[in-house]
Amino acid sequence: MDFNSLVLKVASRCNLNCSYCFMYNLGDTTFKRQPKFMTADTVDHILEKTKRYIKKYNKKEFSFLFHGGEPLLAPKEFFRGFIDKVNHLQKELKEVTFSYDIQTNGVLLDNEWISIFNEFNIAPSVSVDGTEKAHDMFRVDHKGNGSYKDVFKGVQLLKQKMDFADIACVINTKEDPIETYNSFKKMKASYVNFLIPDYTHDSYPFDKNKTEMADWLIKLFDIWIDDPEKYKIPMFIGLLNSLLRIEENHKNEVTVLVVETNGEIEAVDSLKACGQGFTKTGLNIAKDELDAIEKTSLGKLYFNNFSKKLSRQCQECPLQEICRGGRLVNRYSKAKGFNNPSVYCNDLIKFIAHIQHYFITSFPNLNEKENIQAIQPEEIKAYLKSISKKIHTYKEEELESFAKNNNLIEA
User: Fold this and answer.
1) pTM of the full predicted structure?
2) Residue-level pLDDT at 394
3) All structural domains of the chain with their residue ranges
């Protein structure tokens, strides 16, 4: 087991009704059976199991990410009580460093909340989808009203009181990427985590033969790379590092464990986009240890190098070490489970090629010395269509078993 973080669904409801939300609007309605807020008893179980996990795997750092729903719907006393209990736990785990993050839609941010963040060193990230136009296309309240103006005020307050503003942005290709980039400059963002939407092969709304996402990202990359006062974009930094082999073998692949509001243990919440009850494991923090997730099919896939358990096409792809098959949710189909390339495969090929071409043209002397060949997207796509089947290092049935939603705990 190699995770150092728990995502805690401290509130199971939200004051927004974002149309693309994997929690509420992509086919999984299990949230309706959740309590509205996490209880003190559930917190006690979480911290007891966390203590055992840390001791068993000799962890020196561990973080808690408060999530939802919308976590700021939870009472402020919840966060004070939670961190007070962790402080008591740390007396026993003196060598462990604990940290806290929170992901919020930003609507409820005010001076009192920010005071709590500062008091307990909670690092906030706010969900903002670029311009007001792009944001309000999807991130609306339950009456259909846009939320951008309230969120913008919240981010400015964060910048004023905490001197940083970290943003999570789901990409909206209907909005101009340059306008999107500049909107975050106006917001004085410190860091923008651009997120590709959680579409599966069954829900993907675009033409897979076209590259709408890549074309958008290429425009964004070009303005970002030439900006002397750029903010951090981890997607771009990660691909640059991969092309330069700075993160050899991808040892820092991020995996987190999720604890639902009622204590249910899940591997990764974005996979709710795969269908009703897809992430349910039968595990609960009240009776099960954190590493029991490895006894589930989904846990075995997610926590054991899911970036290496790829479809045949991905295994044969010359860009496999860079793209690693893309995000897990984007590989899913009801027909073949995870035995597919990403729905964004053509986009990833084109975008990676663009970044590599940037290197080649920017450092011609290095290119000449190393004899680097430029990636040709059309050649790669033609090659992937022509490959023959080869013996796999694992059974395809492992990936295709999820077509039947076979992720329950094994006997």
Assistant:
1) 0.90
2) 55
3) 5-291
